[in-house]
């Protein structure tokens, strides 16, 4: 299988990855662990940059790096290799905020990566429908942006290793397609919905497409979900709505996403990865870039 991306595809993937990490690290600052919700809401409203000198990224970035590394080596999604890369990323630092399902699954893939075929569908009685396959996939969409069919197919393969439920997979397809369209300079939520498999994620993206950009972001989060349930269908629509609201402005997009609170590292990682496929981090505030943990 030959799916080596163009130089433009590799550059777009790198832009997306850097912005995904920045969004993840920025979003993490608003978690109750660091700020109680009222203080977080006030500081976000006032656009006050978190003062902590170092913003660490979380599992979203760790797994996005693993996926990117596997694609660099193989040129396409090799599911057994990818399962090993996910497991190695988890093993390297288990304190990156992984969800319960990944704590169960990823250690078992370390010794037997091919076991994802039986273990992933057993998670949560039918496979995970969480937002974990969506949160790491934007750089894949950017990488293959020249071919939207390829983007959707590769996103499915990247998701299945950990998220066997159709909703978890659909979340990955929606985000990857959005990142590809962003890299092409034409992010359109209706077009994302058209290429997302049928189900609650696609329904949510359609609702996002119908939500006017004059809506306040916190109100849009009320309508579309903010990731509080950690499910793909309550995470992806709002994160893509803010991306489409600010397709050329990473900083504005991330502030808007933060207004939704909820699973805010992941919503910001998704928004960052999608907008960043077009913008990279070049326009982000210098104080954000200085604080963000380097990708290494
Ligand atoms: Mg996270």
Task: Describe this entry's structure for a reader.
- With 296 residues, the protein is an all-alpha fold.
- It has a single domain (7-291), classed as Orthogonal Bundle (ADP-ribosylglycohydrolase fold).
- Helix content is 63%, strand content 0%.
- Helix 1 (7-28) packs antiparallel against helix 16 (264-279).
- The longest helix has 22 residues, at 7-28.
- It is globular and about 50 Å long.
- The two termini are 29 Å apart.
- It binds magnesium ion.
- The site of magnesium ion (MG) has 6 residues, from helix 3 and helix 16.
What is the fold's blueprint, element by element?
Blueprint lengths: L6 H22 L8 H9 L13 H16 L4 H14 L7 H12 L4 H7 L9 H4 L2 H6 L4 H13 L5 H18 L5 H6 L5 H10 L7 H8 L11 H10 L4 H10 L4 H16 L6 H6 L5
Helix pairs in contact: 1-3, 1-15, 1-16, 3-4, 4-5, 9-10, 10-12, 10-16, 12-14, 13-14, 14-15, 14-16, 15-16
This protein binds magnesium ion.
Identify the notable features of this structure and list them briefly:
binds magnesium ion, ADP-ribosylglycohydrolase fold, single chain, 17 helices, mainly alpha, 296 residues
Bound molecules: magnesium ion
Instruction: Count helical runs.
Output: 17
The percentage of residues in β strands lies in under 5%
Please tell me the total number of domains. Answer: 1
* CATH fold field value: ADP-ribosylglycohydrolase fold
Secondary-structure element order, as H and E? Answer: HHHHHHHHHHHHHHHHH
Taking Cα atoms only, what radius of gyration do you get, to the nearest Å? 17 Å
Tally of extended strands?
0
Q: CATH superfamily, called what?
A: ADP-ribosylation/Crystallin J1
The second-level CATH architecture is Orthogonal Bundle
Helical fraction equals 55-70%
Protein name: ADP-ribosylglycohydrolase
Binding site for Mg(2+): 58-60, 263, 265-266
GO molecular function: metal ion binding
Cofactor: Mg(2+)
């Amino acid at each position: 299988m030959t799916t080596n991306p163009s130089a433009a595809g590799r550059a777009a993937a790198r832009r997306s990855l850097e912005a995904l990490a920045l969004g993840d690290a920025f979003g993490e600052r608003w978690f109750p662990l660091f700020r109680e919700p009222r203080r977080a809401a006030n500081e976000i409203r006032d656009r006050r940059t978190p003062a902590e000198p170092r913003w660490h990224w979380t599992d979203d970035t760790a797994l996005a790096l693993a996926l990117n590394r596997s694609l660099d080596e193989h040129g396409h999604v090799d599911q057994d290799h990818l399962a090993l890369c996910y497991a190695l990323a988890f093993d390297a630092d288990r304190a990156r905020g992984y969800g319960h399902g990944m704590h169960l699954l990823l250690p078992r893939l370390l010794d037997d990566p091919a076991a994802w075929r039986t273990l992933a569908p057993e998670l949560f009685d039918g496979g995970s429908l969480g937002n974990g396959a969506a949160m790491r996939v934007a750089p894949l969409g950017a990488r293959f942006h020249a071919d939207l069919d390829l983007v959707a197919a590769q996103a499915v393969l990247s998701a299945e290793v950990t998220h066997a439920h159709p909703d978890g997979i659909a979340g990955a397809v929606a985000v990857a397609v959005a990142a590809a369209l962003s890299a092409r300079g034409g992010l359109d939520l209706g077009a994302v919905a058209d290429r997302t498999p049928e189900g609650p994620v696609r329904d949510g993206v359609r609702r996002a497409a119908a939500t006017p950009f004059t809506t306040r972001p916190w109100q849009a989060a009320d309508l579309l979900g903010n990731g509080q349930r950690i499910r793909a269908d309550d995470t992806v629509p709002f994160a893509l709505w803010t991306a489409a609201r600010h397709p050329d402005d990473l900083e504005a997009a991330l502030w808007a996403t933060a207004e939704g609170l909820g699973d805010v590292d992941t919503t910001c990682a998704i928004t960052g990865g999608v907008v960043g496929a077009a913008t990279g981090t070049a326009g982000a505030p210098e104080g954000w870039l200085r604080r963000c943990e380097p990708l290494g």
